[in-house]
Amino acid sequence: MDRRAFLTTSGIAATLAAPALAQSSGTFNWKMTTAFPPGAPFYSHGPGSLSDFAERVKVMSDGRLNIQIFNAGELVPAFEGFDAARQGIVEMNAWVAYFGAGKVPPAQFFGAVPFGMSTQGQNAWFYSGDGIDLWNEVYNPLGLVGMPIGATGVQMTGWFNKEINSIEDMKGLRLRVPGLAGQAYSRIGVDVKVLPGGEIFPALERGVIDAAEWVGPAMDKVMGLNNAAKYYYTTGWHEPTTVTELAINKNAWDKLPTDLQAIVSNCAAACNVISHSWCEANNALALDEFKANGTEVRTLPTDVVEALRTEMTAVYAEMGAADPLFKKVMDNYFEFKATHDVWADASEKVWHSELR
């Protein structure tokens, strides 16, 4: 292309772009509530955190979209931010969708799925399957737009103040655990409690609960949970990955220029990946520290896991039969999982079991 043709083409492009530039003018000041305690790494600060997300949006928008973050209890109680976003009191809320299990049961598939997919599979479903489209099909009637903004990877079963040697040891145990997993635990005799993150340590330390799951070693260390219980159990059957949800008030979203919508979506996707990387980089160090300081790291007995699998299968069937939208999301999720498992079995599973 010669210089004259380039200048002509550039002039046409600039003319066509002018309305979009005009549409993008103006400054937006938004508020985000969260269900997470102040100072929590991964959630509140650090690479891929909510504050990292807000800073990325500010920089990429050249200060045209500014997000003020309110942690749990700073503006509304931990579990009330979702409704605040629906009502337009705030523009955004960040939590895990299972905290709203009673309000929107199908949304739990966008948060944590017992016996579900890894972070790799979950992200494949979101970005290359129907995951995000289904998310917004569920949320559109609520006046919300949903997307992932963080991922912990596989989580630990949690902290226990006694050894678990068989399913009998689970009966009557007061365990803090949210979401679909809590229903399976209840069916094997566990007394399930749902507490915000900031209430877990004092409840476990004082004996109000006997056991609790939070996330993984790096974040559990900051919460001090190793000082409240001796036994630390895996597997993460209940949360093979856990996704932080960004729920945006749809009226506010629709008022954003398209370039700012793209910035929000891309910053959220970036933080989804970066936050998971932070967990993968820091969990082993924290786990080694726990072991060195006397924590007993154990694996949940096979009979317990298999009993939970049986009960979880029944929970899925019953909830699907009662709620067509739950069933639609569930069927899509597990159909995608069946396909993804073929590759996971041929790659990740073989690598971990045979080639390390």
How does this model look, in words?
The relative contact order is 0.16. The chain has 356 residues and is of the alpha/beta class. It is globular and about 60 Å long. Helices cover 49% and strands 14% of the residues. It has helices spanning 3-23, 50-60, 81-87, 119-128, 131-139, 180-187, 200-205, 217-223, 250-255, 258-292, 302-322, 324-355; strands at 28-34, 65-70, 92-95, 144-151, 158-160, 174-176, 191-193, 211-212, 231-234, 243-249, 296-299. The strands form 2 sheets. It has a 6-stranded mixed beta sheet, with helices on one face. The chain starts with a helix and ends with a helix. It is built from 12 helices and 11 strands.
Notable characteristics:
356 residues, alpha/beta, 12 helices, globular, disordered N terminus
Question: Secondary-structure blueprint of this entry?
Answer:
Layout: H1 3-23, E1 28-34, H2 50-60, E2 65-70, H3 81-87, E3 92-95, H4 119-128, H5 131-139, E4 144-151, E5 158-160, E6 174-176, H6 180-187, E7 191-193, H7 200-205, E8 211-212, H8 217-223, E9 231-234, E10 243-249, H9 250-255, H10 258-292, E11 296-299, H11 302-322, H12 324-355
Parallel strand pairs: 1-2, 1-3, 6-7, 6-8, 9-11
Antiparallel strand pairs: 3-10, 4-10, 5-8, 5-9
Helix pairs in contact: 2-10, 6-11, 8-10, 11-12
